[in-house]
Amino acid sequence: MLTPRPVIMLFRDDFRLADNPALNAAHASGQPVVCAFVHDPDTQRPGAIGWWLNQARSALAATLREQGGTLLEVEGTTPEAVPQLAKIFNAETVFWNRRYDPTGKAQDTQTKATLEAQGVCVHSLPGRLLHEPWTVQTGSGQPYKVFTAWWRAVRDMPPPGRCVSAPRTLTFAPWPKAAHALAEHAHTLPPHTLPEGANAAEQDWPCSEADAHDMLQEFIENNVARYSQERDRPDKDTTSRLSPYLRAGLISARQVWHAVEDAVQKHGHIAENAWTFLSELGWRDFAYTQLFYHPTLATENLRPEFNDMPWQNTQKLLHAWQQGQTGYPLVDAGMRQLYQTGWMHNRVRMVVASFLTKHLLTDWRKGEVWFHNRLVDADPAQNAMNWQWCAGTGIDASPWFRIFNPVGQSEKFDPTGAYIRTWVPELRHLPDKLIHTPWKADPALCRQIGLHLGKTYPHPIVDLKEARAVALAHYKNLPARQ
Ligand code: FAD
């Protein structure tokens, strides 16, 4: 009997065995499978996200080893490396889950054309989102521009398809000599290290498919029932913390959706909170819809009137913001949490982004780049959409004149200062009332608790009232608005 030709399963940002449509289809072909990953210099990101994706890939490789297989890692650009692999293995078909970012889309189009010219079939499947961007449209066939309308349309649609289980036993294709040589080369590539100072990330983010499901279960059991009330409270820290796992595809959005829906079926009283949570997952899809239709989401204002914004881009202020040394405790707590752990609570992300763009009049793209380098969940769609949302430059964005007051936000969402005390320890002995405004503390009290403003903790780097007035005036004077 003739040995069947192998098929290739190409992993990228979908480092899981369960609910992985491309892997499932490769397995269902009944042919031996080559599990492959390309170290592609055109799509690799530096920073914490590079480290995190590397961890996720290693976890997948370990799981495959337990099943008697090996993840074949090769170096090269995807459009060159994948057709080369197909030749080496004489593969019949290549399977992958779809990408939606401009580089990924362009690469996949090119790779598919080359493979098909070689006589190799390509199957690209939907594995990343709840719904493909082009399947949620207005009555006139246009993409939605407003989230609430998009979300209403999603809720009127059938739920995302049911999840598929991990293949029970994968049949791995034997490797020819040339494949071993490529794999050996890939093993000599330098490791992705965490950026300087992100020492807490390793212990904060256990990395495997099983860890992702443990996080989800813990969230469902303990926190989903109070999500609406507590999701804005960084001091409580009760959101799911699933973003890095979704980013690396250690868990799928569909798995999260159905697990939460199943919990609602069993415990009806959590329904309202559960739907608020699912709507956040909806924002993730909505971000991908924006990126799909606006490939320059991370680099161009979606509202062109902002092209004339006279950003001040003062390097000293940007540096103080990056280092968590602005003199505004909530901003500094958030920026230090980001620096040390690779993650920041959503409410605080909004506050620091508003502060950078409006009070410091710094171009949102500088914040986007900094976040992309420091976040373990750095995502091309979610990061870009949210920065444009906070800066008011995006579609369905928070308007420019909505300027968060970092003190008011701090008093409201971290009332006892517990979050600030964790990340800004030099303020921890201040009473609750003063922790949001250390500059108001009596000098005698400061001496007593060892707080030396201007030395151990900075004075505020801008005056909130003045900075706000300047930000509003700049917007009012934009030529396109005249
Ligand atoms: P939960 O509250 O438990 O929400 C569940 C999931 O819903 C999240 O894991 C995430 O996938 C999705 N989600 C939640 N809020 C949003 C949102 N506002 N937009 C899109 N999806 C959302 N999220 C990223 O995953 N990667 C990023 O690079 C990123 N950059 C951001 C930059 C800024 C300036 C802001 C304001 C927000 C950004 N977010 C980003 C969105 C949000 O802050 C994080 O998804 C959230 O804090 C992750 O924590 P969680 O998993 O506990 O969220």
From TrEMBL:
<feature type="binding site">
    <location>
        <begin position="377"/>
        <end position="379"/>
    </location>
    <ligand>
        <name>FAD</name>
    </ligand>
</feature>
<feature type="binding site">
    <location>
        <position position="277"/>
    </location>
    <ligand>
        <name>FAD</name>
    </ligand>
</feature>
<feature type="binding site">
    <location>
        <begin position="239"/>
        <end position="243"/>
    </location>
    <ligand>
        <name>FAD</name>
    </ligand>
</feature>
<dbReference type="InterPro" id="IPR014729">
    <property type="entry name" value="Rossmann-like_a/b/a_fold"/>
</dbReference>
<comment type="similarity">
    <text>Belongs to the DNA photolyase family.</text>
</comment>
<dbReference type="InterPro" id="IPR005101">
    <property type="entry name" value="Cryptochr/Photolyase_FAD-bd"/>
</dbReference>
<dbReference type="InterPro" id="IPR006050">
    <property type="entry name" value="DNA_photolyase_N"/>
</dbReference>
<dbReference type="GO" id="GO:0009416">
    <property type="term" value="P:response to light stimulus"/>
</dbReference>
<feature type="site" description="Electron transfer via tryptophanyl radical">
    <location>
        <position position="311"/>
    </location>
</feature>
<keyword id="KW-0274">FAD</keyword>
<dbReference type="Pfam" id="PF00875">
    <property type="entry name" value="DNA_photolyase"/>
</dbReference>
<feature type="domain" description="Photolyase/cryptochrome alpha/beta">
    <location>
        <begin position="5"/>
        <end position="130"/>
    </location>
</feature>
<dbReference type="GO" id="GO:0071949">
    <property type="term" value="F:FAD binding"/>
</dbReference>
<protein>
    <recommendedName>
        <fullName>Deoxyribodipyrimidine photo-lyase</fullName>
        <ecNumber>4.1.99.3</ecNumber>
    </recommendedName>
</protein>
<dbReference type="GO" id="GO:0003677">
    <property type="term" value="F:DNA binding"/>
</dbReference>
<dbReference type="InterPro" id="IPR002081">
    <property type="entry name" value="Cryptochrome/DNA_photolyase_1"/>
</dbReference>
<feature type="binding site">
    <location>
        <position position="227"/>
    </location>
    <ligand>
        <name>FAD</name>
    </ligand>
</feature>
<feature type="site" description="Electron transfer via tryptophanyl radical">
    <location>
        <position position="387"/>
    </location>
</feature>
<dbReference type="Pfam" id="PF03441">
    <property type="entry name" value="FAD_binding_7"/>
</dbReference>
<dbReference type="InterPro" id="IPR036134">
    <property type="entry name" value="Crypto/Photolyase_FAD-like_sf"/>
</dbReference>
<keyword id="KW-0285">Flavoprotein</keyword>
<dbReference type="GO" id="GO:0003904">
    <property type="term" value="F:deoxyribodipyrimidine photo-lyase activity"/>
</dbReference>
<keyword id="KW-0456">Lyase</keyword>
<dbReference type="InterPro" id="IPR018394">
    <property type="entry name" value="DNA_photolyase_1_CS_C"/>
</dbReference>
<keyword id="KW-0157">Chromophore</keyword>
<feature type="site" description="Electron transfer via tryptophanyl radical">
    <location>
        <position position="364"/>
    </location>
</feature>
<dbReference type="InterPro" id="IPR036155">
    <property type="entry name" value="Crypto/Photolyase_N_sf"/>
</dbReference>
<dbReference type="GO" id="GO:0000719">
    <property type="term" value="P:photoreactive repair"/>
</dbReference>
